[in-house]
């Protein structure tokens, strides 16, 4: 979809009052590739500059479940869903504990025995950070998936 915007050029208008020049710009509309990636990047950037709150929009169920996993392990504080009769917003309280978070795209299938190499590849150490998986039991971290003996797809990580 191309949008055409007409902007009146005000430079040199005093000289040419009879025929103002018009410029035409065409903009291509941007498409969001990953809503989860945008949400995690905005949280990471707000954490880096020391903000205490960040607003994530648009919201989705996957973002909410990912935030629940992060909150369960204490990496973020409370978060609140704000219904704006569109796609919704989420206001997240940051507590300064989040060092890095990201999305793994495309989502790779991970078996129970393959979780350990993924944690070694993505996380800085064994007892630090979590990988978030989407499994048949819901969106969980890698430790809970190993305890329940379920496999799934890798969504992202945080530490």
Separation of the first and last Cα atoms: 39 Å
**Largest sheet data:** 5 strands, antiparallel
Query: Which bin fits the share of residues in helices?
Result: 25-40%
Beta-strand percent range: 25-35%
Structural class: alpha+beta
Radius of gyration: 22 Å
Which features does this protein show?
159 residues, alpha+beta, 2 domains, 5-stranded antiparallel beta sheet, 4 helices, 33% strand
Helix/strand layout:
Elements: E1 2-8, E2 22-28, H1 35-48, E3 53-56, H2 61-72, E4 76-82, E5 89-94, E6 101-103, E7 109-110, H3 115-122, E8 130-135, E9 138-141, H4 142-148, E10 152-158
Antiparallel strand pairs: 1-2, 3-5, 4-5, 6-10, 7-10, 8-9, 8-10
Question: What do these coordinates show?
Answer:
The longest helix has 14 residues, at 35-48. This protein has two domains: 35-94, Ribosomal Protein S8, Chain: A, domain 1 (2-Layer Sandwich), CATH 3.30.1370; 104-158, Dna Ligase, domain 1. It is an alpha+beta fold. It contains four helices and ten strands, in the order ββαβαββββαββαβ. It has helices at residues 35-48, 61-72, 115-122, 142-148, and strands spanning 2-8, 22-28, 53-56, 76-82, 89-94, 101-103, 109-110, 130-135, 138-141, 152-158. Strands 6, 7, 8, 9 and 10 form a five-stranded antiparallel β-sheet that branches. A three-stranded antiparallel β-sheet has the order 3-5-4, covered by helices on one side. It is globular, with a radius of gyration of 22 Å.
Summary, kept brief:
The protein has 159 residues and is α+β, with helices and mostly antiparallel strands. Helix content is 26%, strand content 33%.
